[in-house]
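Me: I keep going back and forth on a fold encoding question. No explanation is needed for now; the record alone will do.

Assistant:
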Amino acid sequence: MSSKVCMILVWFFVICLLVVGLVMVSSTAAWAEETKHPYEPLFKQTAFACAGLVGAMILSRIDYRIWRKYIWWILGGACFLLVLCYVPGIGKEINGERRWITIGMQFQPSECAKLCMMMALANWLALYRDRTTSFWWGFVMPGLIFGIPLALILFEKDMGTSVALALAAFCVMFVAGTRKIYLGGAFALAGTALYVLVQSNANRLERFLAWKDLDAHRLGAGLQQYRASIALSRGGLDGVGLGNSAEKHGTLPFAHTDFIFAPLGEEFGFYGTMFVLLCYFLMTYAGIGVAMQCRDTYGRFLAVGIVAIIFCPAILNIAVVTNAVPNSGLPLPFISFGGTNLVFTLAALGMLTSIQRFSTGAQPNCEITRKDERSIDVRL
């Protein structure tokens, strides 16, 4: 398939997921405690989707290579926004996590940081593409580039986003040629670090213990996953029908956000959940097709990163809802209620569209070349 066909398929499956998301938000969010009007969540989610699509349209018409001139400023700005989560009066703590800031409006800087991290990581790996097998240039430096903002997100107690971003970064490094032994060692080190973090935090430890014995913790830390399993089993093959979910009526907390996959399975059954999974996999497959046909190394790595920051959180969210992994609090891209994730995920797809549009005409003098190890020359 041509890159244009692949990009059309990406957007086709994204629109399918958006439609499913709007339907499920309309069905579940009306019963949430904070909802004042039954149609308020649907109106908000529709507005977020429109804003994200407008942002995607704008980014799709801007040559993605232009942003490389400002890449370190972009990454620095993302880190600055993450630091603001800890500033009193600006950062806001919700459910024990400091993910949000309020500057005119409330949003999650980590969602913005995802794309910025991938842009910086792709830039470095493309710049030093002839040294990606070395320990320093192909592993340590890229690790620092995504590790600093990742640490800021982790300190927000947002372990789910941190794990998903780490997996996405490793995907890009693997494609770029980083040696497998380095990535394997990093996985082992990350696993050890996660174990220490879980053991040192009572809330995380309780979630882990609940995952190991869900029935014993069904009224405590395991409540969400326990009720989600009931919802999925009740849905069976065909589901109970749109609007007929029982778990969304308060027994399943956050049924319209992090655990929206459970009422989706309850209302549309096994076939509905498989349709959603198929959309994610085919969207990812088509996105990788765009990356493989990209003539620009930076664009190829960035395309892989964009696809990964959508696919990894989606799979982790579904794994949490189906109790395959401990509860980590991740939204389901395009489907969960929430503005920041939806807007920035669609914006990232706009940049993927830009890669498909402009990479086919890439010429050698449009690349960033390395003059030496301290400076780069951008020739556009």
Observations:
- The chain has a mean pLDDT of 86.
- The chain is about 65% helix and 5% strand.
